[in-house]
């Protein structure tokens, strides 16, 4: 039991070390030449009004550029509801007995 | 929660909550907000109704069959709207490419299909919230 605990601690420390190494590689926050400032965000900012006709850029991205994403997001909603209903809803047989 | 004051205040407030929810959904293309936030507001109006007036009345107003029907076929509605793009010779769910008039930015009908899709997703979110509420409320009884 004790050896197992020490092993778990070792694994946790190693994982933390790895994550911290990855964080140290990140570019500084808010700099101009970060990789996230590429042509995608530029295109969204400059041309979303012409492409989608919406003033709200978020709606334009969610329902036009990434409409597929939103479609399967509704399936995620369906799956979550399905899980809750299957877990918590009483069976038909019990409802008849009441 | 079957108090007289509660019921009268709810009767005054709930229509305004519903109007506000539809306002947020329909103005998703031109103002802040959107269908997810508006759907939450609509669902909360229904939850307030069934909390104050009792679960039985709430289930009578929103029958479970209808709720599960919307929940099951909601994504199909989304897909059917996406088919407009294919009919017009453009990719699935295309909006401007399919030759749909985008309207004047800032008005209610701007954005082509975005308004329809937003309305569908908003009703879907409200529906999901209501199903979760009914299921969890009826679980312990």
Walkthrough of the structure:
The complex is a heterodimer of chains A (about 100) and B (about 140). Chain A is an all-alpha fold and about 100 residues long. Chain A has one domain. In chain A, about 75% of the residues lie in helices and about 0% in strands. Chain A has helices spanning about 1-25, 40-50, 55-65, 65-90, 90-95. In chain A, helix 2 (about 40-50) crosses helix 3 and helix 3 (about 55-65) crosses helix 4. Chain A starts with a helix and ends with a helix. The model of chain A has no long low-confidence stretch (mean pLDDT about 85). Chain B has about 140 residues and is mainly alpha-helical. Chain B has one domain (about 5-140). Helix content of chain B is about 70%, strand content about 0%. Chain B is built from 5 helices and no strands. Chain B is elongated. The chains are: A mainly alpha (about 100), B mainly alpha (about 140).
């Amino acid at each position: 039991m004790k050896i197992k605990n020490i092993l778990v601690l070792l694994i946790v420390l190693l994982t933390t070390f790895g994550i911290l190494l990855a964080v140290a590689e990140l570019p500084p926050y808010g700099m101009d030449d970060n990789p996230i400032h590429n042509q995608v965000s530029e295109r969204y900012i400059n041309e979303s009004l012409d492409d989608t006709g919406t003033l709200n850029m978020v709606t334009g991205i969610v329902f036009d550029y990434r409409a597929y994403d939103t479609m399967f997001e509704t399936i995620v909603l369906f799956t979550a509801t399905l899980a809750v209903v299957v877990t918590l809803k009483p069976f038909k047989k019990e409802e008849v007995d009441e | 929660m079957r108090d007289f004051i509660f019921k009268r205040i709810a009767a005054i407030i709930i229509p305004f909550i519903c109007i506000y929810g539809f306002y947020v959904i329909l103005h998703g293309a031109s103002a802040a907000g959107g269908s997810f936030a508006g759907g939450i507001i609509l669902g909360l109006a229904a939850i307030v109704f069934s909390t104050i007036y009792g679960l039985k009345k709430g289930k009578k107003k929103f029958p479970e069959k209808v709720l599960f029907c919307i929940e099951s076929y909601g994504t199909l509605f989304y897909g059917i709207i996406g088919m407009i793009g294919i009919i017009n010779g453009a990719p699935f769910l295309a909006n401007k490419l399919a030759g749909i008039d985008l309207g004047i930015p800032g008005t209610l009908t701007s954005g082509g299909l975005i308004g329809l899709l937003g309305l569908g997703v908003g009703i879907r979110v409200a529906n999901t919230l209501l199903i979760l509420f009914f299921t969890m409320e009826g679980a312990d009884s």
